[in-house]
Amino acid sequence: MTRLRLVRDLAALAGGEGLSKVAGFLAFAYLARVLRPEDYGAVELAAALALFFALIVDFGFGPIGAREIARHPERAPELAAEVPAARLLLALLAVPLMVLTPWALGQPEATVRVVALFALSLLASPWTQRWLLQGLDRMAWVSVAQALRMIVFAAGVVLFVHGPEDLARVGVLEIAAAAVMALYFVAVQGIAITPVRLSFHRPALARLWREARSVGASQVVWALNQYLPTVLVAGFLGGAEIAWFGGAQRIVLSLGTFVWIYHFNLFPWVARTTGSSPEAFRRLVEPSFRVTAWIGVVGAAALTWVAGPVCRLAFGDAFGAAAAPFAVAVWALPVGLLSGHARYALIASGHQARELAAQVQGAVVTLGVGCVAVPWLGALGAAIAMLASSSVVWIAAHGATARHVAPIPFLAPVVRPAVVSGLLALGLSLLPWSPWAEAALLATGALALAPFVDRGLWSDLRALAVAKSPPLAAGAAPGGDT
């Protein structure tokens, strides 16, 4: 075992995902400038549908496989053959459904065409063995994959897309990028872990399905929560409104990747501690919650301050209309960062059906709020629906975790960063500085004050930094980090 393992793995994941998001963000910023707003909206709709249907293809097999391998590494060859087989069967169902979706929404022919091309990229999804490397704690290898995919996509966009007449090429490049990432995972698995093969053994697939169905349904509902606002905007309004919300959501989801990698990195250890040592789980979650509360709240406050400049810088002056949706939607980031502790604890402890129930409640809120707010407020209404849904999921998942897994922090650690950020924002509003300078001062000032306002923060940072080292591992299940 090595000390600071969590920090090292998190740094590797953050480096790879950071490079990926920079490449992807630059690619979409470029597309926003060379395409018409309605064409860019078509790309955003295609990307949203692709991510949604990719989660249908995964359908919970990844988290369940990672959980089982984290506890029983000897099962890696068996699961590495079963999971892609199950995913391939779902991909053959998901591709035609995705192709039909824009047609059912009454979208223009050009939009239907680009969505169909994005749909074909789903055939590479079964070979995305990120979960296998996660379960074996090979985080550095995971970090390379997504960066490779987005670099290929971004390079292709700059080289081959120069105007609205090249819209279909965006879909072709998505297929190429997905294929490159799949080939990377196949190569890594075959060379370093276990031979690549598919197993369609019916009893094994049925057992895997029973384990994964609650998590899979939860993932699909989570994706519905994320991307239903885009579909509602497309269905109710269409046109440039999709671009305004899609641009705001793209920034939020790009930043949200770091929420995902944080909990992705933490998940194998959460799986071990919830299965064997509630005390180790508590020592992991409590410091993590306080640290992420400060980072999430302060970060969201600073981004809200520069919502307009961020959207215009990212996508051009026309996207100033995306500022208000972004200022609302960005608060889904700290909510997701904090709720992830409860959501992943439920999955790790075998209570995935309760995590599904939380996501279903969020989807109901998305649909209810969205159907009222989107026709009235347009893209801003979609952002409100997105934030309301994330908040309801957090409340529901927290309650289920507290009852069925272990006590877990909720709002108390959020109060101090919220008060400090609010007071600094109030003071900065009186200064005649640029929004960028004020946002930077808000973030640095709040984080500088944090250790004095919240005196347990330094000890929490130290505890979290060594979370995968021997002190936390006491009493953990065999087969931990070595």
Explain this structure to me?
This protein has 482 residues and is mainly alpha-helical. The chain has one domain. Helices cover 82% and strands 0% of the residues. It contains 20 helices and no strands. The longest helix is centred in the middle third of the chain and has 37 residues, at 240-276. Mean pLDDT is 84; it is low at 469-482.
- Main sheet specs: none
The count of domains is 1
How far from one another are the termini?
4 Å
Secondary structure tally: strands:
0
What spatial form do the alpha-carbon principal axes imply? globular
What is the N-to-C succession of helices and strands? HHHHHHHHHHHHHHHHHHHH
Strand fraction equals: under 5%
Mean pLDDT: 84
Low-confidence stretches: 469-482
Share of helix, binned: over 70%
Helix/strand/pairing class, anyone? mainly alpha
Count of helices? 20
Radius of gyration over alpha carbons? 22 Å
Q: What does this entry show, briefly?
A:
This protein has 482 residues and is an all-alpha fold. It has one domain.
